[in-house]
């Protein structure tokens, strides 16, 4: 197998790896966005619930209803904390995926640069060979004309 096809194959593989890394990065960005929205939703719900609690508290409110309100707030707070942990894990995964994608993209770019240089070198060499053949042909033709005139 000649070098250009090996380098072209490596370049194609690097492009595919970079594409997979970019796809994974996009999926993690989407998951992070969803986790953030979920956290914001839970936080907003907690605030609304606390405001509702303050407005609904009336003298003579049944004790069991008051207990329900009081027990739900800590449960909601735990859900918010769990969502915060999920969000932090997502941030870490996203950061790692970004570094991974950058490395894959950098490798792809480096291989593409090598391939471009190699293709340019091969074109220059082919042009030189062609020019040399043309020069030799012209020289033979010119010598042939001189010999015929002599």
Automatic annotation (TrEMBL):
The cross-references to InterPro entries, in alphabetical order and at most eight, read: Flag_assembly_chemotaxis_eff, Flag_FliJ_proteobac, Flagell_FliJ, FliJ
Q: Which domain of life is it from?
A: Bacteria
Question: Where does this polypeptide localize?
Answer: Cell membrane
Gene Ontology biological-process entries: bacterial-type flagellum organization; bacterial-type flagellum-dependent cell motility; chemotaxis; protein transport
- What Gene Ontology molecular-function terms does this entry list? cytoskeletal motor activity
Q: How does it sit in the membrane?
A: Peripheral membrane protein
Q: What's one GO-annotated cellular component? A: bacterial-type flagellum
Keywords assigned by UniProt?
Answer: Bacterial flagellum biogenesis, Bacterial flagellum protein export, Cell membrane, Cell projection, Chemotaxis, Cilium, Flagellum, Membrane, Protein transport, Transport
Q: Which Gene3D superfamilies match?
A: 1.10.287.1700
NCBIfam families noted in UniProt: flagell_FliJ (TIGR02473)
Sum up the protein's function in the record's words. Flagellar protein that affects chemotactic events.
Which protein family is named in the record?
Answer: Belongs to the FliJ family.
Name-wise, this protein is: Flagellar FliJ protein
């Amino acid at each position: 197998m000649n070098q250009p096809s090996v380098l072209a194959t490596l370049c194609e593989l690097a492009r595919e790896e970079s594409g997979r890394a970019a796809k994974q990065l996009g999926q993690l960005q989407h998951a992070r966005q969803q986790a953030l929205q979920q956290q914001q939703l839970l936080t907003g719900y907690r605030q609304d619930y606390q405001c509702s609690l303050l407005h609904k508290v009336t003298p003579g409110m049944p004790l069991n209803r008051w207990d329900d309100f009081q027990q739900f707030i800590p449960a909601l707070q735990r859900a918010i904390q769990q969502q915060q942990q999920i969000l932090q894990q997502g941030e870490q995964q996203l950061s790692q995926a970004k570094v991974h994608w950058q490395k894959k993209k950098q490798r792809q770019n480096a291989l593409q640069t090598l391939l471009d240089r190699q293709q340019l070198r091969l074109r220059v060499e082919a042009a030189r060979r062609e020019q040399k053949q043309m020069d030799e042909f012209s020289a033979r033709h010119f010598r042939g004309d001189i010999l015929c005139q002599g």
